[in-house]
Each structure stands twice: as structure tokens, then as C-alpha cells.
Design goal:
Blueprint lengths: L2 H15 L2 E2 L2 E2 L8 H18 L5 H14 L2 H8 L12 E5 L9 H9 L3 E5 L7 H12 L7 E3 L9 E5 L2 H10 L5 E4 L3 E5 L6 H12 L9 E7 L5 H6 L10 H16 L5 E2 L4 E4 L9 E7 L2 H9 L5 E5 L27 H7 L1
Parallel strand pairs: 3-4, 3-6, 4-5, 6-7, 8-9, 8-13, 9-12, 11-12
Antiparallel strand pairs: 1-2, 10-11
Helix pairs in contact: 1-3, 1-6, 2-6
């Protein structure tokens, strides 16, 4: 396969996923492979939801819709335009060790390996093991040349040439040691932050609530911490996020809310809360579920200096006019294909192995 063939396969996959959106499921007659795969994928969504109660139907559909939008021909070509692909590449086998915090969280790595012309050996998280294998079968159905290039395993990893692994800071140390003799990308814990000035519009703050609550805040691109000016009044923030209040009716979220609130109260920590979210002043970046940490700042220069020392802990900065790398309010969970995790260019890495 040349690069145009590989791109075409993923464009077709995007078309297939376009039938599963947050507005509902709609079968489209023109989608290749639908007669074999449509009902089967509906069943896999049901299984994924039953297996992991954090994977609600809405969050699964949000992830599928996001990938459908990303896998447009124009997007893929814009992403890959700056790279030089060798159509006669001798495909290496690349291991991907995936996290399982949100639906299809490892799909970008999976896409990158295959679009580069390599073979992929996937070790999935037990929390997210139903959707991707089915999509791999769909890819093989519409392009049989992919057969033999995609493998999934739960066994010891053997016979591979490079590694892309995502995990916690603790598992990253293990990965770094275990894969020290292989080319690798090892990702650690990261979190996202939002910088508020007090001049945000209601629409911006409402959009920020999507960055906070989507996927229950479990993703590395979810905002888990706010930086606010000294004396910041949180009333406008609490009003703007109120549309998410039904989240407290979901059992796992409510249990985390109640548990963390009890811990804070028993520890006599100061906090603000509105019945479904707690705000706690804390220097850490990784806040528990149903909690946002915050810190105050005196000036942009002060904040710039603090953030500069913590770049290896931050995935996204949500702001309006803070720096050139900021993400607009409400957009953290809609990255472009060229928005690489940890700012490590996966395609560049894959073309060099």
C-alpha cells in the first residue's frame, strides 16, 4: 500500500464512525462494510458501556464523533503534508501500550503507526478493550492488505522494533527500564490547566465546563486546575458550569464527590462547592474526580514563570491571550491530528525507526 491507499482506508473508517454520534445512531446506506459491521459495532458499544461504567453512551459517542470529524481526507492530508513517506518502507513492528481512561484514548498512536506503513502490536488496557479490535477488523475488511499488520496481545511482548507506551509516572519508570534497548516514546502523567483573568464571557466559562466535565475529567486533556488572579470571584464560574449539574446523579461520580468532600471536611480544608463540584486551593495539578484545584497569581509574568517550571506536567493550557500554544475554551477534547500528546511528534519518530 502507498500512503494514498492508507489515507483512503482511514477516511472510510471516519465515514463508518459518522453513523454513531451524540445525536444518536443513524445507519447510512452508502457506507462500505455496513452490512457486516454496523450491527456488530453497535453491540461492541453496548459491551464497552457495560464493562466500564465510566464509558457512558454519551461519552463513547462523543469520542466516536470526534474521530469521525478528524478522519476527513482534508484533515489527514493537512496533518501528513510536511512528512516524507517512503512507499517502499520495510514496515517495523511497533508496540503500543494503551491507557484506558477514556474511550479509544490510544487511537491516535494506532492511526499513526499504520498510516506510517508500520505494523502494530497493541497491548490494551482492560478498561478499554472492546472498541478498537472491532475497528481493526473493519479496517481489514475494507482493505485486506492490512491483514497481518494489526495484532492485539495480552501476553508478554516479544519480536518488536519500537514502543509507544502511555501510563502513570510509576509505570513510566518501569517502561523506561524494560524498553531501554528499543526506540521509544514513553508518556507519563499530565494534566491540563485553565488560566482565568476575570474578564471571561459567560460563553467562555460555559465552554470551559466542557473541558472540565467531559469524560468525568479523566483525560489528560481535561482541565483539572485553574489559575485565577488574587481576589477572583468564582460566582460567574459556578453559574456558567451549572448546566452540568445532572452529573451528580451518576453513581460513580456521586460516590467520588461524597468521598472527597468527606475527606476535605474531616481534614478541615477550605473549599468551595456547589453540590456537584468542589474547588480547593492546591499546588498540585492532578485533582480527584469532582474536584478542581486552583491557585492564585499576581501577574502574567509571575504566572509565566511558574508554568515554565512545570511544562512536563501540563498537557494543555486553556486561555484567551496567554500564549501562542493555548487552547480555546471548550476545545481540549477536540484536538487536531497534529496536536501531539506531550508535544512529541509521533509521525517523525515512526519515520526514523
Amino acid at each position: 500500500m502507498d500512503i494514498k491507499q492508507r489515507i483512503n482506508v482511514f477516511v472510510k473508517l471516519g465515514d463508518f464512525l459518522s453513523q454513531f454520534t451524540t445525536s444518536g445512531i443513524e445507519k447510512k446506506d452508502h457506507i462500505e462494510g455496513n452490512e457486516i459491521c454496523f450491527d456488530g459495532f453497535k453491540h461492541q458499544i453496548k459491551i464497552a458501556k457495560e464493562h466500564n461504567s465510566w464509558f457512558t453512551e454519551n461519552n463513547i459517542f462523543f469520542a466516536l464523533e470526534s474521530w469521525s470529524n478528524a478522519l476527513k481526507n482534508s484533515n489527514i492530508e493537512q496533518w501528513l503534508n510536511k512528512y516524507h513517506f517512503n512507499n517502499k518502507i520495510d514496515g517495523k513492528t511497533v508496540v503500543i501500550i494503551m491507557a484506558g481512561n477514556i474511550p479509544l484514548v490510544g487511537f491516535h498512536d494506532f492511526l499513526s503507526v499504520l498510516i506510517s506503513g508500520h505494523n502494530v502490536l497493541v497491548k490494551q488496557s482492560s478498561n478499554d478493550k472492546h472498541l478498537l479490535p472491532f475497528l481493526a477488523k473493519y479496517i481489514e475488511l475494507i482493505e485486506p492488505e492490512f491483514k497481518g499488520k494489526i495484532q492485539f496481545t495480552e501476553e508478554k511482548l516479544e519480536h518488536f522494533d519500537a514502543v509507544i507506551a502511555t501510563g502513570s509516572n510509576n509505570t513510566a519508570r518501569y517502561f523506561e527500564y524494560y524498553f531501554k534497548d528499543k526506540p521509544s516514546i514513553i508518556r507519563k502523567n499530565r494534566n491540563s490547566v485553565a488560566i482565568l483573568t476575570g474578564k471571561e464571557t459567560d460563553a467562555q466559562l460555559e465552554a470551559l465546563s466542557e473541558d472540565v466535565f467531559r469524560y468525568y475529567g479523566l483525560g489528560c486533556r481535561n482541565v483539572s486546575k485553574l489559575f485565577v488572579p488574587k481576589g477572583y470571584d468564582f460566582d460567574a464560574f459556578f453559574k456558567a458550569i451549572y448546566k452540568w449539574h445532572p452529573i451528580i446523579n451518576e453513581a460513580k461520580y456521586a460516590n467520588n464527590y461524597d468521598y472527597n468532600k468527606a475527606v476535605y471536611l474531616m481534614s478541615e480544608f477550605d473549599m468551595l462547592e456547589n453540590g456537584f463540584l468542589m474547588l480547593k486551593e492546591d499546588e498540585s495539578f492532578a485533582s480527584p474526580i469532582a474536584t478542581l484545584f486552583y491557585e492564585t497569581y499576581n501577574s502574567n509574568e509571575d504566572l509565566n514563570n511558574r508554568i515554565a517550571t512545570k511544562t512536563d506536567e501540563i498537557q494543555c493550557i486553556v486561555a484567551d491571550g496567554f500564549n501562542s500554544n493555548e487552547v480555546a475554551f471548550g476545545n481540549t477534547q477536540n484536538p487536531q491530528l497534529w496536536d501531539y500528546a506531550d508535544n512529541v511528534d509521533t509521525i517523525e519518530f515512526l519515520l526514523k525507526i
